[in-house]
Amino acid sequence: MRPFKTCANGLLDILHPLRWKVLVSCVLGVVEVALSLGFVAMSKKVVDVATGTDASMTLGRVVTFFALIALAQVGASVAARYWDGWLEVTARNSMRSSIFSKVMNSIWTGKDKMHSGDTMNRLEEDIRVVTDFVVSSFPQIIVTIFRFIAASIYLFSLSADLGWILIFIMPLAALGSRLFFRKMRSLTMEIREGDSRAQSHMQENIQHRMVVRSLGGVDEVIDVLDDIQDGILDKTVTRLNYSAMSRAFIHLGFVAGYAAAFIWSAHGLMAGTVGFGSMTAFLQLVGQVQRPVANLTSQIPAFIRALSSEDRLLELSGMAQEKRETDILLPGAPGIRVKGLGFKYEDSSENVFSGLDYDFRPGSFTAITGTTGSGKSTLVKVLMSLLKPTSGSIELYDPVTPSGPATLCNFMYVPQGNSLMSGTIRQNLQLASPSATDGQLWEVLDVAEAGFVRDLPDGLDTVCSEVGGGLSEGQAQRIAIARALLRPGGILVLDEATSALDADTELRLLDKLHERCGGNKTILCITHRPAAETFADGELKLV
């Protein structure tokens, strides 16, 4: 858990670009306060005119003013709620886009530190909590303070003694509730982490539910979710207990203040020092003075939730970022030369590979082979600069260019496994080239032996679910190959890209790839199968 000051400064950083919009919320709130105090004044006026205490206006005229102020209150309230709703959505969208961008552009070390479900929980729920506080609760706090000051001044102008009584009671109640602040923040953080674990667990098991069912593990994963939720419930109940004690202090102060005003007014009526209009004003002003203190105290849980959520968001926004550089697209089919190349993961003491020297010559077809776990997939990720090597050097040529994020644009990549996204086949293909025409899409599909798309009822507009659901593994692989061919780069990387294909289809596909890309592209093909090796003019074997 980060220090209070760090999280509070984070909230201020979020507020800064929104300050003028938040100021509008404050102004609308101040107008509401002014109208509510005007309503109190007109209520007193109506009673005084009706009882004959005040003869400065007719009853009809004062009732008209009374009604106009009431209508103005309704209008101000509607305008304020409308503005708050618009501001909250726009602020949430902006913040989500900003942090999502940082997550997508963060440096990848090969293993994500957070589960995707946890990341999603932060991008959704934590951003909602933080933006709600910044654009809604914060202006309410400002307006509440203004309401308290204005109502107190009005009350003191009517009765200083009653004002001092209320001013004395409510801060004591608020101070009592403040004693639970630190404990509630700790509990809130634990609850938010529990929510993330629950979402991560559900997301992963829903995505792999057929595997879970085939292993007979449905009851077990449900039991795990129940255990996580029981922990959330226990923490929530504990927080509710502290929250209830906090509210008890406030309500005691509220009841004591109202009783003091009522008894004070009743005593004044008996003594003839307070009129019915003044009594009406006193009883309304009690709420105007006490409600701000109660509201301020009720904002403590919102502030605690915002601090906890900001703590979690700072972990995302603080991710180390890839250096943004202008793409360096080399002409033709670039070669790749590696010298003394080595790599190991952050949490491992052993190298995946080390001291590797190899020259992937321009326009060559290299088969990368080796036993499972020898580092073949890791190697191509290092060559593409998706992972940073721990030793050695990589350069693309010609012209000679050091490898880095700016050279990633030279690679046409087909990753291992099913890499399709939810959406249509057209959308999956155009991820590599948004401006690609239907003619270009059909061309690469034919090269990738994916002409079956023509036979689908919706053709290119056939919808795939997550990870290519609705298509076979082999169909998904061929669409992924077609997608890679739309990229403008000169280096084609195939990572077990034909592993799900039958021998005849694989041979036809490789033949078409060789015909289209042979000599025009530098091809790196990770494979365990002999078909690819027959097309290769070089082999790199990892052990």
What does this structure look like?
The chain is elongated, with a radius of gyration of 34 Å. With 543 residues, the protein is an alpha/beta fold. The chain has 2 domains: 314 residues, ABC transporter transmembrane region fold, CATH 1.20.1560; 208 residues, 3-Layer(aba) Sandwich (Rossmann fold). α1 packs across α4, α2 packs antiparallel against α9 and α3 runs antiparallel to α4. A 5-stranded parallel β-sheet has the order 6-9-10-3-11, with helices on both faces. Strands 2-1-4-5 form a 4-stranded antiparallel β-sheet. Strands 7-8 form a two-stranded antiparallel sheet. The chain has 15 helices and 11 strands. The longest helix is centred in the middle third of the chain and has 54 residues.
Tell me the series of helices and strands, N- to C-terminal: HHHHHHHHHEEEHEEEEHHEHEHEHE
CATH class category of the largest domain: Mainly Alpha
Number of domains: 2
Summarize model confidence as the mean pLDDT.
85
Helix content estimate: 55-70%
The number of helical segments is 15
Low-confidence stretches: none
CATH topology of the largest domain: ABC transporter transmembrane region fold
The structural class is alpha/beta
CATH level-four homologous superfamily name of the largest domain: ABC transporter type 1, transmembrane domain
Overall number of strands: 11
